[in-house]
Amino acid sequence: MGSVDKGLVPLNGKPMVAHVLERLTPQVQHLLINANQNQEAYVAYGVPVWPDALPDFAGPLAGLQAGLMHCETPYLVTAPCDSPFLPTDLVARLAQARHAQDADLAVAVTGTGDTRQLHPVFCLVKTALLPHLNAYLEGGGRKMGSWLASLQVAEVQFEDESAFHNINTTDELRMHDLDRALTVAQAQRIIQDLVQPIHGQELVPTREALGRVLAHDVVSPISVPAHDNSAMDGFAFQGADLATNAATTLTIIGSAHAGHRFDSAVGHGQCVRIMTGAVMPALCDTVVPQELTQALTDTTVSIPASTIQTGDNRRLKGEDLMEGKPALSRGRVLRPADMGLLASLGIAEVAVQRRLKVAFFSTGDELRSLGQPLDAGCIYDSNRYTLLGMLTRLGCELIDMGVVKDDAQSLEAALRTACENADVIITSGGVSVGEADYTKPTMAKLGDVTFWKIAMRPGRPLAFGTVASNGKKAYLFGLPGNPVAVMVAFYFFARDALLRMMGACEAPLPRIRAASQADIRKKPGRTEYQRGILSTNATGNPVVQITGAQGSGVLHSMSQANCMVVLHHEQGPVCAGEMVDVVVFDGLV
Ligand code: AMP
Ligand code: MG
Fold first, then answer.
1. Does residue 429 line the site of ligand 1, with CB under 6 A?
2. Which has the closest alpha carbon to 215: 503, 537, 548, 453?
3. 17: buried, middle or exposed (CB in 10 Å: 19+, 13-18, 0-12)?
4. 81 alpha carbon to ligand 1 midpoint, in Å?
5. Ligand 2 being an ion, which residues bring their Cβ within 5 A of it?
């Protein structure tokens, strides 16, 4: 499937490697994955991932070598990551035959006569064969067949040829894929697994870093505050001087202002008038606020009994940030507080990830751009403007490619230009059933794009995959055309994926619970996103009201709404007063 890593391509809602791992788990003691690309995506399966020790994708024997090098058991079984139907008795039968024939390894075979086929990548090998394999590879050998010829091989006949089938084309994948809509969670998971962070970073002045993604951890070069200092305007003294159950009288020997320290020693029975932020004089550990004291004379104050304790009102050195300790982590999307924090550390420039380049266009013969006359039967292209807003908020570098006509040549040309100039392409429209007839072959020609039906409303059709042109590759999100569906698909599918590509460690959109003010109709078996208005009731608790018309073309109600009510896949109708999940738009829409 072109440049696509087949193990990660979805089949029936999960990547093929997940099917393979599921089938192998009950058959073996340990699992490991050999992968030379997309290691991060494979690591997500909680299994050790090892690349070939040999360079240049040297083939199955290099993979076998990597497996044997890291195998902790006396035998190793191998199966390709794109063989989701492998037999559930594969290991037992290979092991039994190897033992019975005292062979070096056992290999699966299917068919007889002309249809007989050896499946050497489905094999069980003695781990002790590693030196033998190393010697073969060092001699320049790369062919499985000729290596096997030097060994004693047990061949095991399997009846079901299709169990060894690996999936090589998207069409084959589609054939095997049940005609079933993916759940939202499945689709989100697949997309997150497939996308990878982009490379490249740049130094920017702290004052321009808002919304950028930190490329490295920031370690505090200094402590903040740099010294113990006063949290109040008052008098600094030694806490040990406080009398028990009686007033304490102190002699004022000087003043300390912020930025001007008091350098003389402060003895017992003495104090220094001190301002907020001023460095604590030597030996002083306590500050009594001015308003808690009584001035006895110009040079003496009294602290009434039991008003304060030793250590009160003193800010400790490093209590905000300690020198040498992590202050901000890589992947942080910098917020206003972070900019202040960087400034407090004296950091004038930070390394951030380069901006993610996103090319976007709308498809449809009926669409007119702003400034054009609105011909009969036409509508203004609004999706490009909602996308513009949403992508700007995410901090992407935008390439607005306008409106593309509903024909294969225009679409191909647009996709090629987008692909050659951007990391990600976002289109809207043209992915619903009728139209996909021409969109599909065009997208398929340039790469590997799967058209998904997702059990959700709005936004059911979605295309996702990669396209390539002139050696450049880009991820493609084909969003539906309806204006509300575009926004829903963007927020609940594209957003997290774009953040991952940007190298950002942002949590998914936070949800809160609110009581629905009215009944909501909902069928189990799909996720519904309804526009809502969140407020607080008389007792101060969060309540949500669905905004009028929920049609996926009614952008107006999206604009009125301040949140999205998320009704989950299994959830049925909601009764008034019932708690529902709500995603607040603040800062998003
Ligand atoms: P489609 O997914 O192309 O079948 O479009 C579904 C609906 O969304 C149709 O009514 C389109 O006219 C409308 N639509 C598609 N693209 C846009 C757009 N960029 N702006 C506004 N409406 C659109
Ligand atoms: Mg259309």
1. yes
2. 503
3. buried
4. 39
5. 364, 429-430, 481
Instruction: Return the amino acid letter for 96.
Output: Q
Cis peptide before 336 (omega within 30 of 0): no
Both tokens of 227, joined, read 């010294």
Query: 350, 362, 381, 235: which is closest to 301 by C-alpha?
Result: 235
The alpha carbon of 444 and the centre of ligand 2 are apart by a number of angstroms equal to: 18
Of all ligands present, the nearest one to the C-alpha of 368 is 1
Distance 587 CA to ligand 1 centre (A): 26
- What does the H/E/C string look like for 264-277? CCCCCCEEEEECCC
pLDDT of residue 180: 65
Q: Identity (one letter) of the amino acid at 493?
A: F
* Residue 428 Cβ < 6 Å to ligand 1: yes
Among the bound ligands, the one closest to the CA of 362 = 1
Distance 429 CA to ligand 2 centre (A): 5
Q: How many CB atoms sit inside 10 A of residue 71's CB?
A: 17
Distance 502 CA to ligand 1 centre (A): 28
pLDDT under 70: residue ranges of the chain: 1-4, 168-180, 587-589
Residue closest by Cα to atom 6 of ligand 1? 481
| C-alpha 434 to ligand 2 mean position (Å) | 9
Which residue do the tokens 């003294």 mark? 237
Spatial separation of the C-alpha atoms in residues 273 and 369, rounded to whole Å: 69
Which tokens hold the place of 586? 């603040």
Give the Cα separation of 237 and 261 in Å (integer). Answer: 14
Q: Is 433 close to ligand 1, i.e. is its CB under 6 Å away?
A: no
Amino acid (one-letter) located at 569: H
pLDDT at 168: 66
pLDDT of 181 reads 81
> Cβ distance 148 to 162 under 8 Å?
no
| DSSP H or E segment with residue 557 | helix 555-560
Q: Which residues pair with 321 in a beta bridge?
A: 224
pLDDT at 577 (0 to 100): 97
CA distance 505 to 200: 16
What pLDDT does 152 receive? 94
Residue nearest to atom 11 of ligand 1 (CA): 481
Burial 419-438 (b: 16+ CB within 10 A, else e): beebbbbbbbbbbeeebbee
Query: Ligand 1 test: best mutation among 361, 365, 367, 440, most atoms within 8 Å of CB?
Result: 367
CA dist., res. 429 & res. 438, Å (int): 12
Closest ligand to the CA of 385: 1
CB 554 near ligand 1, within 6 Å: no
Contact between 487 and 388 (Cβ < 8 Å): no
Within its chain, how far is the Cα of 408 from the centroid? 33
State residue 35 phi and psi, 5-degree precision: -145, 135
- Residue 39 corresponds to which amino acid? Q
Verify whether ligand 1 is closer than 6 Å to residue 290 (CB atom): no
What is d(CA 246, CA 243) in angstroms, rounded to the nearest whole number? 6
pLDDT tens, position by position, 478-513: 999 999 999 999 999 999 999 999 999 987 788 999
Taking the centre of ligand 2 as the mean of its atom positions, its distance from the CA of residue 364, in whole angstroms, is 4
